[in-house]
Write a structure and sequence with these properties.
- The complex is a heterotrimer of chains A (about 700), B (about 575) and C (about 90).
- Chain A is of the alpha+beta class and about 700 residues long.
- Chain A folds into four domains: about 5-120 and about 225-310 and about 590-695, no CATH class; about 150-215, Calcium-transporting ATPase, cytoplasmic transduction domain A (Distorted Sandwich); about 320-335 and about 470-570, Rossmann fold, CATH 3.40.50.1000; about 340-470, Calcium-transporting ATPase, cytoplasmic domain N (3-Layer(aba) Sandwich).
- In chain A, a hairpin with a 5-residue loop joins strand 14 and strand 15 (about 415-420).
- In chain A, helix 9 runs antiparallel to helix 21 and helix 21 runs parallel beside helix 23 (about 665-695).
- The longest helix of chain A is centred in the N-terminal third of the chain and has 42 residues, at about 80-125.
- With about 575 residues, chain B is mostly helical.
- Chain B has a domain at about 20-205 and about 215-275.
- In chain B, the strands form two sheets. In chain B, strands 1-2 form a two-stranded antiparallel sheet. A two-stranded antiparallel ribbon of chain B has the order 3-4.
- The longest helix of chain B is centred in the C-terminal third of the chain and has 32 residues, at about 495-525.
- Chain C has one domain (about 1-90).
- Helices cover about 80% and strands about 0% of the residues of chain C.
- In chain C, helix 2 crosses helix 3.
- The radius of gyration of chain C is 21 Å and the shape is flat.
- The chains are: A alpha+beta (about 700), B mainly alpha (about 575), C mainly alpha (about 90).
Chain lengths: ~700, ~575, ~90
């Protein structure tokens, strides 16, 4: 059985590099199993059991076997010794009872883990005092739980932000580590689209803000997520419903089979008892998947929460598995936000080394990622700092000059910046503009890069090619997605040429260049018209319609309130690449359900061969007892024990999910059918035989 | 022995060879493409449609199609009821047969309208010529055509087309498929020696004693016979059906009969392949069904060839089990015929199924439980694809997507319909009446006692097989009888059998038809999802194998207890030498 | 006699009130009602089963057996219900 420690290590092993930010909702798993055991018994209440058709049949069966334990002759006089009969019936009742308890336990553990997760989330939203701004301008102290949508509140440095909201006034830094795990404070100010939204439970570090509350109490994202992972408001997903129908049909079929077998058996003079018929029924109906179905669903939600994503419905998580198109923004999702120096292009007889030398000199004081990347590239081109940096002074980049650089100790001025700006600088120093400069400029632009010219006083040395850097490992992930049949579309405001270069490099299937927000929604509609399910990420207000249109819309937590409202998931870490992980989680959820269903149904073959030949041995079909089970009693008890124990044995699998590999559908099917289909046929034969050997009666 | 297997292999080869031609032809007919018979049939059909007021271009929705099926079948059934009740004063009744009892008529009507043709009567002594060829013969056409229409509507829906128009499908199934094949077959049968006459029974002196004369029943048999076979009807002109020398005189006619039974349902799978534009899948599924069928034939053939050990012990040597078989067909053609007739829901018999070895009973019952080892006229293929949908649903989740078949998502509604019609109808229509029949009191002397008894003539396992076979035959719309049950009037148990079998017949026919058409309707309305590498491909050997597994587990395991207590137990009993 | 004149109406009113309350409670909670009706029906069914078994079983056994039959049918109806409206569960 899985211990809480195990689950933590599992989490960290899944993806080491993301570990750092997934520490956040620190779920407290202590006492989980004790509570789950208690819950398992409480859930024996028929009003709870009736919600699970398969287990409800077991529940009724248990009552009946209990009655025949009290009086074996209740439904008709049995031939066997009543004492022995009572013992057998008692054993059957006992095992059936534990089958129910185990199934409840599975659900309770999943719910318990969800609750722990929810508690962790809830701890971020403890009841705080909010300073509500009344229309007349006065301030009233109210509890944060009483805040209504549209209320205005004032928060000052050190306060906990009482609710999700939008900054309407002020500028302040906010510590969002409580929900994102990112320790660096975030600057919040009104009207900046992305930076104007705040989440309840985060802490304001400096200055003060006036917020407009965006949600009614209990309706915030975290509240909704809490409700979902706790299982209290769990609504069955479409797929779960369809599966429930199948399980119900199978249960009904076997109910009819078992109910009608009694007269047939009597006719061939191989009568059997009610308790044995109920055992046969319970063994045949799909109790394994019936008992684990809800646990699988809850665990799926839980996995999403562990990924620090808030889903507003289970349906959305399930839809992730069906996604066939991902619409991704270039900046921040496919490329790093910053551009990095890739090449030095010398002009007018200068060498690469010379350009590197000047570029290095111009960048020693530049702390931006671009500047640092120029230093690294220059040093790779064997440039070195040949002056005393203490005597030199840096020139900061300003929006007006669009240049930065260094004033060297020897009085020379080295500059780098936008080509136009540098041209102006050179002209002002009386220099000339090299003829090759425009060619270099055009070449870089066409490659999708940003050209920076470098100069020393009046002389332009060359151009630095700043390139968009595709995030590491994305290509492989897109390859995986392609194998899984998921198409990726990149959206960018860049021109076609630039876009095609990046698209080629990242390995996306398609791209839309010079995209406007309207294009985003158009591309989603177009894909959906072909019957595809589309997922996208977004953060801006103008993304909201597209987020709403997409089947899975993931809003960044740093995004605007409007975006979050329109989306059906919110990523607390604001990491757009997580969309890919969500697809995996959705698929894993469906695979787990399918695998356990297949396993459960495949088990029936062995159970039939264990029970039918032995209980109807009087009909002379003992030779069908290919497992060589000792006796009818032993066969039934073995099959039932297997039936009961397989539920807790599979709880870890149900909670953890079947291991997902990015394979094509055919490969996945072959693999899973071998493990769960063929395995499901063979495993119970072995297990039932072993239990039969171990059982102490003949 | 070798000769027998070669006969079997040749017959199956002919069937496979016919498939692409007939299947392709049927696809052209139902897709409204040009066919060879157009010049003749187009004017005929135009007149028919004009007379009946059918708007040929009007596509029906699921419910409209269902209503058309049910209403038209009801009207046809009422017509047949009228004919059967009034046969006493209708023409062509040379033997002056009077009207049968009401329960016999009820059962006959339901049995023939459902394409089952289960007969709780002897044809030659119950129904006159007019009742036979005008009443029952009419049903041979329309019930088969109804099945074809439903089958094609299902395929259309599955492939995203509108369902079509029932009346057009019904008419064209008759004019373009059943009639042309029927005319060729009738000529072949007449050439093979099957009578086609309206004269009464021949009165001839017997060979042993010319002073004693004997009445030999005959009638318009040849055309009735071919329709009985190709329409998967199975209701014989004579009581002993295709074992009768006037229905099936020679190995040649037997070959036509066997091929005739399986020709349309097997080709229909190919028709699906053409319409879905996926012949590969059609051949894969075809291969799966053919394989199961061959396995059944081999099982049955071996056990019939080896004969009954108890009899062999008496004879002091091994002889094939020829009890209840026609010597002109031998063990091989009888074994083949029995598997094909139960698999295709024809229900014609050229040997006495009751006398087969238990393996035979096992195979025949399994055929009827599964209903897809070719299956009924049109509906068999529909069932097959409903099984595929179930297999997609169970295993499709394992590729991590909402399961889809031909690009259409399988959701709650589809699972309810497929699960209901495939998994539930049969247990309800077979096991429940079966269990009730077995709980009814048996006659103390086994057979003849007066009073209300269940009319089962065999004790123990064989009796159980007889009862379950009867209901399986009714529910699967097969119609063959295992024999050994007192189901015909004037036996007192006939009322029970007529009524309970009628329930199984209706449940086994119309509930699945409604479910199939609704399923087709909802599939056709779905927006197709384009295929990607993440989509489960259903036209692979792997998936076909999985489907076979799902069919085995879901279809067959339901009936495992019945089979275990019936034929399996009997087989062990015989093996032990008690029987 | 006169003294009791006042009481009976109060008592009947009380009873009527109780009755309506029980009735409305029943209307609300269907399960006990169905259980009761099932048990009543079983009283009819059990003698039939007793007659059919021809004295092989005691009366109480046939009562329990027919109750089991009813439970089985009820379960089947329940499963049918779940099959068609699984959303409710």
């Amino acid at each position: 059985m899985q211990t809480p420690q195990d689950s933590d290590s599992l989490q960290s092993s899944r993806s080491g590099k993301r570990d750092s930010r997934r520490h956040t909702p620190k779920a407290n798993m202590s006492g989980l199993y004790q509570r789950a055991i208690r819950e398992a018994f409480i859930k024996l209440d028929p009003r709870t059991e009736v919600k699970n058709p398969v287990m409800f049949v077991v529940w009724v069966g248990t009552i009946v076997t209990f009655l025949v334990t009290l009086d074996p002759n209740l439904f008709g006089t049995v031939q066997a010794d009543p004492g022995q009969q009572r013992l057998l019936n008692g054993l059957i009742t006992f095992i059936l009872f534990f089958t129910l308890v185990f199934a409840n336990f599975a659900e309770a553990v999943a719910e318990g883990r969800g609750k722990a997760q929810a508690d962790a989330l809830r701890s971020t939203r403890s009841d705080t005092i909010a300073h509500k701004l009344l229309p007349d301008g006065s301030i009233q102290e109210v509890s944060s739980t009483e805040l209504q949508r549209g209320d205005q509140v004032k928060v000052v440095a050190g306060d906990m932000i009482p609710a999700d909201g939008e900054v309407i006034k002020g500028i302040a830094s906010v510590d969002e580590s409580a929900i994102t795990g990112e320790s660096a404070p975030v600057l919040k100010q009104p009207g900046t689209d992305i930076m104007s939204s705040v989440t309840g439970g985060t802490r304001i570090l400096s200055d003060e803000l006036i917020l407009k509350v965006a949600s009614d109490p209990g309706q915030g994202f975290i509240d909704r997520m809490i409700a979902l992972v706790e299982g209290a408001e769990r609504v069955k997903t479409p797929n779960e419903i369809a599966l429930t129908v199948l399980l119900t049909v199978l249960t009904l079929v076997f109910l009819i089979v078992v109910a009608t077998v009694s007269p047939l058996a009597n006719y061939v003079q191989a009568p059997t008892t009610i308790a044995i018929l109920i055992s046969l029924l319970v063994a045949l109906i799909p109790t394994t998947i019936g008992g684990l179905l809800s646990a699988i669903g809850i665990a799926g939600m839980d996995r999403v929460a562990q990924f620090n994503v808030i889903a507003t419905s289970g349906r959305a998580v399930e839809a992730c598995g069906d996604i066939s198109t991902l619409v991704l923004d270039k900046t921040g999702t496919i490329t790093l936000g910053n551009r990095l120096a890739d090449e030095f292009i010398p002009v007018d007889g200068h060498t690469v080394e010379e350009v590197a030398q000047i570029a290095l000199a111009a960048s020693v004081f530049d702390e931006t990622p671009e500047g640092k990347s120029i230093v690294i590239l220059a040093e790779r081109n064997s440039a070195n700092i040949n002056f005393n940096t203490d005597d030199a002074s840096g020139v900061e980049f300003t929006a007006r000059t669009r240049m930065s650089g260094t004033d060297l100790p020897n009085g020379k001025e080295v500059r780098k910046g936008a080509v136009d700006a540098v041209k102006g600088f050179v002209r002002s120093r009386g220099g000339t503009i090299p003829v090759q400069l425009d060619a270099a400029y055009e070449r870089v632009s066409r490659l999708g890069g940003t050209p920076l010219a470098v100069c020393q006083d009046g002389e332009i040395y060359g151009v630095i090619y700043l390139k968009d850097i595709v995030k590491a490992g994305l290509r492989e992930r897109f390859d995986q997605l392609r194998r899984m049949g998921v198409k990726t579309i990149m959206l960018t405001g860049d021109n076609r040429i630039t876009a095609s270069v990046i698209a080629e490099e990242a390995g996306v299937d398609d791209f839309i260049a010079e995209a406007t927000p309207e294009d985003k929604i158009d591309v989603i509609r177009r894909e959906q018209a072909e019957g595809k399910l589309v997922a996208m990420t977004g953060d801006g207000t103008n993304d909201a319609p597209a987020l709403a249109q997409a089947n899975v819309g993931v809003a960044m937590n740093s995004g605007t309130q409007a975006a979050k409202e329109a989306a059906n998931m919110v990523d607390l870490d604001s990491d757009p690449t997580k969309l890919i992980d969500l697809v995996t989680i959705g698929k894993q959820l469906l695979i787990t359900r399918g695998a356990l269903t297949t396993f459960s149904i495949a088990n029936d073959i062995a159970k039939y061969f264990a029970i039918i030949p032995t209980i109807f041995a009087a009909a002379g079909i003992g030779s069908l007892n290919i497992m060589g089970l000792k006796s009818p009693q032993s066969a039934i008890i073995s099959a039932l024990i297997y039936n009961a124990l397989i539920i807790p044995a599979l709880i870890p699998l149900a909670l953890k999910g079947v291991q997902f590999r990015p394979l094509t559908a055919d490969q996945l099917l072959r693999r899973n059918i071998l493990i769960y289909g063929v395995g499901g046929v063979i495993a119970p034969f072995i297990a039932i035989k072993i239990i039969d050997v171990l059982l102490p009666f003949s | 022995m070798f000769q027998g297997w070669i006969q079997i292999a040749l017959t199956l080869l002919i069937v496979v060879a016919i498939t692409p031609f007939l299947g392709g032809y049927m696809a052209r007919v139902y897709l409204g493409e040009r066919t060879l018979l157009d010049p003749v049939l187009n004017p005929v059909e135009r007149i028919l449609f004009k007379l009946s007021g059918v708007q040929t271009r009007e596509n029906m929705t699921g419910w409209q199609y269902i209503k058309a099926v049910l209403y038209s079948n009801l009207v046809m059934a009422l017509l047949l009821t009228f004919i059967l009740f009034s046969q006493g004063w209708l023409p062509f009744n040379p033997t002056a047969l009077s009207e049968p009892t009401w329960d016999t008529v009820l059962h006959t009507v339901i049995s023939f309208i459902t394409n089952t043709d289960q007969q709780h009567y002897s044809g030659e002594t119950t129904y006159g010529y007019f009742a036979q060829f005008a009443g029952l013969g009419y049903m041979l056409f329309v019930s088969a055509a109804t099945g074809l229409a439903v089958g094609i509507a299902f395929i259309r829906g599955l492939t995203g087309r509108p369902l079509g128009n029932f009346y057009v499908d019904l008419t064209q199934s008759i004019t373009r498929i059943l009639l042309p094949i029927g005319i060729i077959g009738t000529i072949l049968f007449i050439a093979g020696g099957v009578p086609e006459t309206l004269t009464g029974p021949a009165i001839v002196p017997t060979l042993e004693n010319p002073a004693i004369s004997q009445a030999i029943a005959r009638g318009p048999v040849a055309h009735f016979e071919i329709l009985k076979q190709i329409g998967e009807n199975g209701g014989g002109f004579f009581a002993v059906n295709s074992a009768h020398p006037f229905e099936n005189p020679s190995p040649f006619t037997n070959l036509i009969q066997t091929v005739g039974m399986v020709m349309i349902p097997s080709s229909f799978i190919y028709t699906y392949g053409v319409i879905a534009n996926n012949r590969k899948q059609a051949w894969l599924v075809y291969g799966m069904v053919l394989t199961i069928s061959i396995v059944f034939i081999i099982f049955n053939g071996i056990s019939e060839y080896n004969g009954n050990p108890a009899v062999n012990a008496l004879l002091g040597g091994q002889v094939p089990n020829l009890e209840g078989k026609e010597v002109r067909f031998g063990w091989a053609q009888s074994a083949l015929f029995s598997v094909i007739t139960t698999g295709t829901m024809t229900g014609a018999v050229n040997s006495f199924h009751d006398s087969f070895m238990p393996t035979g009973g096992f195979v025949m019952m399994s055929n009827m439980f599964l209903q897809i080892i070719w299956g009924g006229q049109g509906t068999g293929t529909a069932y097959l694809f409903a099984y595929l949908i179930l297999a997609v649903f169970v295993t499709g989740l394992m590729v991590g997507r909402t399961p889809e078949f031909l690009g259409r998502k399988i959701e709650k509604r589809e699972v309810v319909l497929a699960g209901f019609l495939i998994l539930l109808v049969h247990p309800i229509a077979i096991l429940i009446p079966g269990a009730i029949a077995m709980s009814l009191p048996s006659a103390p002397d086994g057979v003849t006692a007066q009073g209300f008894y269940n009319g089962i003539t065999n004790p123990s396992f064989h009796g159980l097989t007889q009862v379950l076979y009867e209901y399986a035959s009714a529910a699967a719309n097969n119609g063959s009888g295992f024999g050994g049950l007192l189901t015909s009037q004037p036996a007192p148990s006939a009322l029970w059998w007529n009524l309970s079998a009628s329930f199984s017949l209706l449940a086994g026919r119309y509930v699945p038809i409604v479910a199939l058409l609704l399923l087709a309707d909802s599939m056709s309305r779905k927006q197709p999802v384009p295929m990607t590498s993440g989509t489960l491909r259903t036209d692979t050997g792997l998936f076909t194998g999985i489907t076979a597994g799902v069919i085995l587990i879901m279809g067959a395991l339901t009936f495992f207890p019945v089979l275990a207590l019936g034929p399996i137990a009997e087989a062990f009993q015989i093996a032990k030498g008690i029987g | 006699m006169k003294r009791f004149d006042v009481r009976p109406p109060v008592l009947t009113a009380q009873i009527a009130e109780d009755m309506t309350e029980i009735w409305s409670e029943w209307r609300r909670q269907k399960l006990p009602l169905y259980l009761f009706l099932g048990l009543c029906f079983n009283l009819v069914l059990a003698p039939a089963v007793f007659a059919a078994t021809g004295g092989e079983m005691s009366r109480s056994q046939t009562y329990w057996l027919s109750a089991l039959g009813l439970v089985t049918i009820a379960l089947a109806i329940y499963l049918f219900f779940v099959m068609f409206v699984p959303e409710k569960f």
